[in-house]
Write a structure and sequence with these properties.
globular; single chain; alpha+beta; two-stranded antiparallel ribbon; 40% helix; 4-stranded mixed sheet; Phosphoribosyl-aminoimidazole Synthetase, Chain A, domain 2
């Protein structure tokens, strides 16, 4: 990966391992004054990425959603790493991220609260009646969001691991383990 992404992206990707908790995000959002009347649900982004987390939140809460693809944040490091492995960063493990559902009139307050602590937060859509479904909007086109059972990260990880093991075994090259 280092050869394809460059040393800086490689190092940032390695460093991201230490930023996989969304606890601070949750505590800050819950700490917004009178939060029990503002924040309605939270879900950490794990397997299935941000789209999987939104889908799960909708199913558990009995809601539908409209999600605006152009508003979904993707950091440069994740974008570069996913590009190397042919993955969609919106659907891959997103440890360290949090989905926060809140009443519409409090979005700006919660975004500002998190921004003060240098935690990026953006509104990506809205919950709606379950009968409307879970829709992803891309260029004004609404499509049903499909739930991905297996995070595409895992097959890509195992393929990359097999290549490294094979290269170590058959070339005798000393390939770093990280």
């Amino acid at each position: 990966m280092k050869n394809q992404a460059g040393a800086e992206i490689y190092q940032l990707a390695c460093d991201s391992f230490y930023h996989t908790s969304s606890l601070q995000d949750a505590l800050l959002a819950a700490g917004v004054s009178d939060a029990q009347n503002k924040v309605t649900a939270m879900h950490d982004v794990t397997e299935g990425g941000v789209l999987g987390a939104i889908y799960e939140l909708c199913v558990v809460s009995g809601n539908g959603a409209t999600i605006y693809n152009n508003q979904l944040p993707v950091a440069e490091v994740q974008e570069q790493v996913c590009k190397i492995f042919g993955l969609d960063p919106r659907c891959c493990i997103g440890a360290g991220s949090m989905i926060i559902a809140c009443k519409k009139e409090f979005v700006a307050e919660i975004v500002t609260c998190l921004a003060k602590e240098k935690i990026p937060c953006v509104a990506v859509g809205e919950l709606c009646d379950k009968r409307k479904g879970i829709k992803l909007v891309n260029n004004d086109k609404f499509t049903d969001l499909k739930y991905v059972e297996t995070d595409p990260y895992w097959p890509a990880f195992y393929e990359a691991l097999k290549k490294v093991v094979h290269e170590k075994k058959y070339t005798g090259r000393n390939i770093p383990d990280h």
